[in-house]
Design a protein that fits this description.
two-stranded antiparallel sheet, globular, 77% helix, mainly alpha
Length: 290
């Protein structure tokens, strides 16, 4: 096929930009793995699960490096948030697409988009000043796993709502016309036609929300309590992997610093698994529509 000079230039530019973006991700991953190698060689992978506590030191034999409470705190806070945000987000998108008047839906989307642009530190500040005292009045100390779940839910909700709304919008209008021709009710159309048709997009929205929850730092640091221990309930304080890196990297040296990069590597692995799950969901969605 004939290509003009402008076509060749645009093709080269697009390929170059894609290569740069991909290379940056690869370079970051290589750097994190390289910096975490001393933790794996001097400390050993088993100590991150079997040491008595998290009291790292510059010299591995003198420190304690149990990451299990931090990892569990990360998983519980993120999974708790997505378990709340997923149904709220999907139902909000259903409201926008199928129930709300056009003017109400337009304003609702604008509010959600504004909510998506709020910096995480603002959510954390609001949580610390307003939400923590309310939770503390119910069950001290206030800074807890429960508070972190609420804040993370508010932060990832726009992601789930907007991407699910886009998934519904991408479904062919013929689906709705066919459902109307069969005399299906609105609820039956949504549950039996539209949600299955947009399922891969909904799954992608939920998984991307979970990825964002895993990566949040400042808001979680401000409201979760940052105590390194296994939580016995929703109102116990926890610490996450991102919070640990943010709180300790400024003064960490030696094996302590390497162990924090090991935390970053664990986060990269979790995110990579979720991204692979998103790709699998998208491929299944494309297969089902063909």
């Amino acid at each position: 096929m004939f290509q003009s000079n402008k076509d060749r230039l645009l093709t080269a530019l697009v390929i170059g930009m894609a290569a740069i973006a991909g290379s940056i991700v690869v370079i970051i991953a290589i750097f994190v793995v390289k910096e975490s190698i001393p933790a794996m060689t001097h400390i050993g992978g088993s100590r991150f699960l079997t040491d008595e506590s998290w009291h790292p030191a510059d010299d591995a034999p003198r420190g304690q490096f149990n990451l299990l409470p931090i990892l569990i705190g990360t998983v519980l806070s993120s999974m708790g948030a997505i378990c709340v945000a997923a149904p709220l987000g999907v139902l909000s998108a259903v409201f926008c697409q199928f129930y709300a008047p056009l003017r109400v839906a337009r304003w609702y989307r604008m509010i959600i988009e504004l909510m998506a642009g709020v910096p995480s530190v603002v959510f954390g500040l609001w949580g610390l000043v307003v939400l923590v005292p309310i939770v503390a009045s119910i069950h001290p100390p206030g800074q807890s796993l429960f508070t972190g779940i609420i804040i993370l839910t508010l932060m990832i909700l726009p992601t789930v709502v907007l991407l699910t709304d886009a998934a519904f919008s991408s479904v062919s209008h013929s689906y709705r016309q066919g459902a109307a021709a069969l005399g299906l009710s609105r609820a039956t159309t949504v549950l039996s036609v539209m949600i299955p048709a947009a399922w891969s997009g909904i799954v992608t929205a939920v998984l991307l929300g979970l990825v964002r929850a895993l990566g949040e730092t400042m808001a979680v640091v401000m409201v979760c309590g940052n105590v390194v221990r296994l939580p016995k309930g929703l109102f116990d304080p926890v610490r996450t992997l991102t919070g640990t890196i943010a709180l300790e990297m400024g003064y960490a040296r030696g094996d302590h610093r390497a162990s924090l990069f090991f935390c970053g590597m664990v986060l990269l692995i979790l995110v990579a698994v979720l991204v692979a799950s998103i790709e699998i969901a998208n491929r299944r969605g494309r297969h089902d529509t063909t």
